[in-house]
Amino acid sequence: MKRKIALLLAMVLTLTTIQTNYALADEEKAVTTTAETTTETVQPLQLSIEDAIKLAVENDRGMWKINDGIKQMQQMRKDGSDAKKQVEYLMSLSLEATAGMNITDNYVEKLLVKNDYYIKTADTQMKLLEKNKEVLTVGIEIKTKSLYYNVLIAEKTIEINKAKLASANEQLRVINLKFNTGSATKAEVLSGEMSVQQAQTELDSANDDLNMSKLNLLNGLNLPFDTEVILTSKDLNYVPTQQLNLNAAIEKAKKDRTEIIEAENALEVQKIKTHVYTAYYTSNLRQHKAAVEELKDAELNVPQAYKDVELDVRKSYLNLVKAERSLVNMDKTVELAKEAARINKLLYANGMAAAADVISADANLAQAEIGRYQVLVAYNLSKLMFDNSNLIGSTSAGN
């Protein structure tokens, strides 16, 4: 009997142990699966410049407002068309039929309706809003590329400063070797250590600039600030300005720029209003005189708009020429800085230059390389502005 009881207890303990092991195994598997899932969800966002522009356009509230404005103008045109039919019907009635109606009530408004004032206003505004969609899209593209390029500048600055730090450390190593053999002074060692410290400080500062540039980009794209992004569009090129046609750009801008479209639309609408007011009010009344003056202003605004647009395009072209000249000069500066750094290293190795000369030459080279990349970015933005000068002006892009 005792043996049976002992055997039963052993079986119970064995089953309990097996169940516990299965439970622990399932729990461990669940934890592993959760950890794998967590690891998979935290992936950096591979972001090309085209993807960035697409995100910025999709998330821009200005585009939503323009679409709402177009719908409002469509409704305004429909209302204006219905009102015109009603006014024409009333004016077609005989005197007997209108006896008891006060059709002269608010008669100026009826005349404006009859002369297509509200239909024309809606049509011109819809045309302008459609053009504004193009302008806004270009403006978003320019702004997004500027934010994107700022991140690239920060990344390039880090790359150059890392090389500068490595060069400073190597130079310090050489100085210490010479100091140990008595061919370098303590002052040179201290100068080398200061160079390393300065290079490290500039690298740390560049990392901070990169983080801030990324935050600005994420904000512009309406992405969470903790999103990790990797920029994939690294290449920057330029087309010489000699291949650009300034006169063709001016003529295209005169056809497409919203400033001109808006001025011409305002003139068309004002002509209708002035026609109605001068027909209804006598020449000695304030309304008559105001309508005439408003028409004169509208007529003067059109040639002024053409002039302003041409001026803006010419300025955009000159900014591009200036940026290209700076880029060419910076290319020469980098070449000279590289040669100066090379020669100073050779002279120092042969005891014909001081360590400070080598350190200074390396610092100048790093500064020139960073400056060259910044100027290249500025050139690309200037080129983008000129290429789109038919749609957007320098002032609009700054906003």
Summarize this structure as a short list of keywords or feature phrases.
single chain; 399 residues; mainly alpha; Outer membrane efflux proteins (OEP); two-stranded parallel sheet
Structural features, described:
One of its GO terms (cellular component) is efflux pump complex. GO terms for molecular function: efflux transmembrane transporter activity; porin activity. It is found in: Cell outer membrane. It comes from Sedimentibacter saalensis. This is Outer membrane efflux protein. This protein is mostly helical and 399 residues long. It has a single domain, classed as Outer membrane efflux proteins (OEP). It has eleven helices and two strands; from the N terminus they run αβαααααβααααα. The protein has a two-stranded parallel ribbon with strand order 1-2. Helix 5 packs antiparallel against helix 6. The longest helix has 64 residues. The chain is elongated, with a radius of gyration of 37 Å. It starts with a helix and ends with a helix. 25% of the residues are buried. About 8% of the residues have low confidence.
Strands of the widest sheet, in order across it, are: 1-2
* Secondary-structure-derived class: mainly alpha
Domain module tally: 1
CATH superfamily: Outer membrane efflux proteins (OEP)
Radius of gyration: 37 Å
InterPro entries: TolC-like (IPR051906)
Keywords: Cell outer membrane, Membrane, Signal, Transmembrane, Transmembrane beta strand
GO molecular function: efflux transmembrane transporter activity; porin activity
Organism: Sedimentibacter saalensis
